Amino acid sequence: MNEEIEFILDTAKEAMSNAISHLEKELISIRAGKATPAMLSTVMVDYYGSQTPLSQVANVNTPDARTLSIQPWEKSMLQPIEKAIQIANLGLNPMNNGDLIMINVPPLTEERRKGLAKQAKAEAEHAKVGVRNARKDANNEIKKVEISDDMKKIAEDDVQKLTDSFVKNIDDKLAVKEKEIMTI
Asked: Cα 65–69–75 angle (5° rounding)?
């Protein structure tokens, strides 16, 4: 196959892979009933004047399925961490006992589960849009290449097969996450 076509296909595959990677990160941050340190991945703490991710100023653990414990590396960071969790508006209530911060993760209501499933679907749709945009870009590049129409048609079919496989992958990841969210 033509080198230019192979490069276009590789570029499209990379862009589609990036859409999947982004989807995986977003799905991890969507809460599914049990406590995970990833729930606090978006929390930014005021660490001596600069916004720093929580994971860089404290150790986050899950002693059990409904509890998060946050142990700062400096005791002076207890108040800023507590404040940052409240500001992050995650619906979590931190409790400071002087040594570490404990967060009891409440069980999800049916309504909240449906809302989280809807959020997961929206993220999957964003990923599909990213995959389709990569397909469109690849097809536009293929049309610019100086090759026969038959070769262009074969290359466009290859791009479509790639797109179909990535969309199926997105659907599979969404199905797993929805099952995880809806399972009590």
From this structure: 180
Torsion, Cα of 27, 158, 7, 17 (10° steps): 10
How large is the average pLDDT for residues 45-49? 87
3-state secondary structure (DSSP) of residue 82? helix
**Packed helices 110-144 and 149-182: angle between N→C axes, nearest 10 degrees:** 170
User: Quick one: which of 70, 59, 173 has its CA closest to 126?
Assistant: 173
Alpha-carbon distance of 9 to 38, in angstroms, equals 34
- Say how far apart CA 56 and CA 155 lie, in whole Å: 46
Tokens standing for residue 179? 């099952």
**Cα(115)–Cα(24) distance, rounded to whole angstroms?**
18
Q: What pLDDT digit, counting tens, does each position of 77-99 carry?
A: 888 888 888 888 777 888 888 88
Identify whether the C-beta of residue 84 lies closer than 8 Å to the C-beta of residue 44: yes
Whether residue 71 contacts residue 100, with contact meaning beta carbons closer than 8 Å, is answered with yes
Q: 69 in helix, strand or coil?
A: strand
Residue 101 token pair: 């911060």
At a CB cut-off of 8 Å and minimum separation 6, what does 10 contact? none
Full-prediction pTM beyond 0.90?
no
